[in-house]
Amino acid sequence: MEVLSHSASETKDLGRNFAGGLRGGEIIELTGDLGSGKTTFVQGLAEGLGIKRRILSPTFLIRRSYQGQLNLEHFDFYRLNSPQDLAGLDLDDAVGVPKTVTIMEWPERVGLQSPKAKRIYFTYVDENTRKIAL
Prior knowledge:
seven-stranded mixed sheet; Rossmann fold; alpha/beta; 30% strand; 134 residues; single chain; 17% helix; 7 strands
């Protein structure tokens, strides 16, 4: 299914609605250009999981963890270049864990695409429009 989002608010709404179908243990891979709405989607998804904290991109930290009705582990591999760069991130305690939703941005950069993952593709169309393929 493809959706056109015409604002950050619509992208957050899509994430919030998507969260309603999550039960924990899911791995969600987000792929798309910089500025295509990945983190905005995650902000809405986090709201849908009952997370009250402000959601920031983990680009420079690689990993951020949040607690809510379901926990959220948010990874951003943009700054990494190979699977060896994953050492020390403790992925085993975050990926596929019950009561936790794992989000991975840019998994292809480190060869982490999982056959069990749900993939969402983001495309920058113009300043106000994003195409999101679920």
